Amino acid sequence: MKEANPAVTDALQQVLVDLIALELQSKQAHWNIQGTSFRSLHLALDEVVDKTRELLDEVAERLAQIGAFPDGRPETVARTASIGDIDGGKLETQKTYVLMAEKVQAVSDEIKEYIDPVDEHDHISGDLLISAAGELDLQAWFLRSATD
Ligand SMILES: [Fe+2]
């Protein structure tokens, strides 16, 4: 296999840290929401966690396949993730539906920006990004549709 293009590895690395941050924040919200529709959001957030975890593993392993070293260390995630943190303590359910829908959509939209530049060098990685964005669009829609 020829050496991976930095346009591909940089994009996949950024997507990796943002997916890890999204997974961690979704779990944080899963534990700390309180309010109306608690149960629905509690379960929906765990679906986001599960899907995001599958996607981030695929992205990390694609990086490894093309000769890069995926960096999912906590310090790297904290320093380079682009989605901002989530508040500690109690999270109000309806606000958290909106917040998490926005975060999931933000990661999906970021991934979409990378599809063309990545696909130019590596169709397999491009295809991975397309399916990741599709899955996140679905999850964002689920969350968004539960808000008033
Ligand atoms: Fe749980």
Describe the structure in your own words.
With 148 residues, the protein is mainly α. The protein is 75% helix and 3% strand. The protein is built from five helices and two strands. Strands 1-2 form a two-stranded parallel sheet. Helix 1 packs antiparallel against helix 2, helix 2 packs parallel to helix 4 (93-119) and helix 4 (93-119) runs antiparallel to helix 5 (123-144). The longest helix has 28 residues, at 38-65. The protein is elongated and about 55 Å long. The relative contact order is 0.20. Bound molecules: fe (ii) ion.
Write the layout of secondary structure elements.
Elements: H1 6-32, E1 33-34, H2 38-65, H3 74-80, E2 91-92, H4 93-119, H5 123-144
Parallel strand pairs: 1-2
Helix pairs in contact: 1-2, 1-3, 1-4, 2-4, 2-5, 4-5
This protein binds fe (ii) ion.
